[in-house]
Amino acid sequence: NILGTIILYSELLLESSTLMPKDRERLATIVKQAQRGSTLISQILDFGRRSVMERHPMDLVPFFREIEALLSRTLPEHMKISIQFNGQDAYFVDADPTRMQQVIMNLAVNARDAMPKGGELRFMLDEVTVRAPHIPFPGMEPGRWVRIRVTDTGTGIPASDLPHVFEPFFTTKPQGKGTGLGLAQVYGIVKQHDGYIDVDSRPGQGTTFTILLPAIEEPSEALGVSDIEEARAGSGERILVVEDDEATRLAICEILESLGYVVSGAADGKDAVHLLIETQGGFDLIVSDLVMPNMGGRELYDIVTEQYPRVRMVLMTGYPLGTHTRELLDYERVTWIQKPITSDTLSQAVRAMLRPKQMPAPAKG
Known about the structure:
This protein is α/β, with parallel strands linked by helices. It is 37% helix and 21% strand.
């Protein structure tokens, strides 16, 4: 909540047309440093396998096509990028596209740093079948696995460092050049996907990271990397913000009001229910924290679903999801954003949930 409030108010001030150039520069520094702190928190949560994920069936072929285009724009021109799909048209896994993108971007940045004079970054995908007794990792189940190999032609990793590369805060980079959390984050995300990761490297010859994810059958619909919603502005839709931290609640309300929404606030789920009763469910969307005193976001969702099924919800959380709340990820009337939030993350989630589409009834348990 602390970082989120700092980021939201700073971004709100940056929208002002009366800012002096020096003040704008100072505010941009505040936002940058707060976002850096947010990134560090996310990396620690990922390593500890406690971050919030939304796993769906996804095809890695279009995913890597988009990654290739993204890396071509962000990596230095002297780095050559190639992708090999080994003749297959699709590789389906159950994954969170955003977290998988984080894995690949972290490995790509690691490869970039290992090739200061240029080189080649290769992505190779194929499918392998694991059979007993030839199990490559302890605890790995026999069956079909998608293998992702990320290879660079860089300086390589010394043999003495290889056992430590996935440890948090371990880094061979100069002070100020790295946090030592990038590969630890990769490891945590892969494990959250029920996968395995290994590394092979020789000094002067380059490095290969190998990721194995459980393969699944092709579903009727699959997700790739979601396009970012460009339209941020609202059109007077009514939004109820439910957050027990007053500073965070006020910041979220101001951001949404600046985007053209009509916003009301509530300190917890009980206050939100009272407002819903008073207005006869007169809100288009509820943006709610998950963990609050008196009544949390999950209990509020159950009431809204039963009594006001037209109203959708965006749930915010900085905590890992339990079994009771993780099942909500299967419903189309609710989405999640990870705290600390930014104005862009908030606006995209709000626009996505307000976009007209048919809402299925929640599953009966």
